[in-house]
Amino acid sequence: MISQSFDIAGELRVRRLGYGTGMLTGLGYWGPRLEPEEAVTVLRRAVERGVTLIDTADNYGPDIAEELVAQALHPYPDDLVVATKGGVVRTGPNLWHIDGRPERLRVMCEASLRRLKTETIDLYQLHRIDPDVPLADQLGTLAELRAEGKIRHIGLDTVTAQELERALEITPISSVQNRFNLLDRESTPVLEMCQERGLAFLPWFPLGNGALARSDLPEVARRHGATPAQVALAWLLHRSPVILPTPGTGSLAHLEENLNAAAIELTPDDLVALDL
Asked: Long-range contact list for 191-199, CB < 8 A, 24+ apart?
């Protein structure tokens, strides 16, 4: 059987299948998607179903996703890990501007603390490395915030293996969040590095549309009485014990479907078929 849990940084135990909040915001991650009461219901149901890892970001909305997390779940259960991200500024739908200046990272982190109504963020991820700011300055700021007790652990989003290696030379890193799914495996070297070093790997776009179009995916799904999306999530859970998928949805029905994927045990033949 596959492991259902993982210890981030060796101390934050989470169920591997979590929940991402991006789909609680509108098109282009801008504005609200649902009425606040609907979003709160989805978040609370995720936790009721045993989710212990919520992944969000300050720029989802912007601000909206973090505010909804606090509205739905604060005061947070002792076993709930809330991860957020900073380092990107939004000016409109699908408009993203990287800003890794130390003073801006500090302002972003402290604003997330206020919105999430917490004194410490369990996992704070640098949403993108700013090419115009020395990496040591960006990670040095996050390390300072960690020393101040405002961050428990530091993560990275969208990095190469070389960038991860450089980051690890500067400060301890607990997680990486890269795009990865059945058809998009470009980040395999980063995943392998995370597995070697015991770092959590949070795949974004875990249900990429291309993956669901595979001709062999529906057949595997039929054998398990599952949906293709469930098999795509099950494949991630089988692919590596450090993978922590956090699929997002604003639908209670889709939430239940996604979380039920954790019960699917793929066979060796299934895995061979899906890896062709």
From this structure: 191/239, 191/240, 191/242, 191/243, 193/161, 193/164, 193/165, 194/164, 194/240, 194/242, 195/240, 195/241, 195/242, 197/168, 198/10, 198/242, 199/173, 199/174, 199/175, 199/242
